[in-house]
Amino acid sequence: MIKTTFDYSLLKAPCLALIHNLEFHNNESNEKIEFGQLIAMDDSYGALKKQVPKPKQLNDLKSIMKLAGRENLFECMDDCFIDEINDYAEEDFLVDFELSKEMGIKEMEKQLFGEDDPYYFNVNLEPYHFTHLMKDLDVFGESYTIVFFVPNDKEKVKEFILNRISALKRKDKSNYEIFKVIHYCYLENSIESSDKEVYGQEIFEYIHEILPPEISAFFN
Fold first, then answer.
1. Taking the mean position of all CA atoms in its chain, how far away is CA 197?
2. pLDDT of residue 93
3. Which of 33, 55, 174, 211 is most buried, judged by most C-beta within 10 A?
4. Which pLDDT score, from 0 to 100, does residue 64 have?
5. CA–CA distance from 109 to each of 4, 5, 25, 130 (Å)?
6. Which pTM does this prediction carry?
7. Is the peptide bond before 213 cis (omega within 30 degrees of 0)?
8. Sorting pLDDT into bands at 50, 70 and 90, what band is 79?
9. Cβ–Cβ < 8 Å for 185, 123
């Protein structure tokens, strides 16, 4: 896979950005993006989510094992998750999940994941925050991630967040629905829009301070 050095100069923060094959410089801090191609920017999480393609269908057992790891079907795995699955014998996997060698990939998927289509990209930063979670890069060989980039400018951030809340209210979203969008689509996916400074936590706390009471009440 050819890696693209991430270009911070393309950002117009505050904004949400869709990034292909995101990789952090240090996966323990998640502060600076080293690799990734900027696909699009938008104020709306939903608008970017619509641009995320469906992953290519998996066609080998080892990839299905990794997908099972991403879906948290494994128990008793430690933080060396990808290494353990790479070393995990396919025969043991079949035995543990009561699958036969004769079963096709489609039938395995149906038994492991139900009728729901398992082929989707996890566009949130959660797998990057927790080392034991399987990343889409490990499963599919590529990833699509939506990141909320915040500048070191509190007034710009305040205007952006309050505008997003107003837009959601115009769509008749309840206060709890608005809380979930702001928290899970924006705050949980926020990082600095510069690779030169570290200010994300300060802005994160500031956003909590400026939220309307009817929204901030759900954070307690």
1. 23
2. 92
3. 33
4. 94
5. 33, 35, 34, 25
6. 0.90
7. no
8. low
9. no
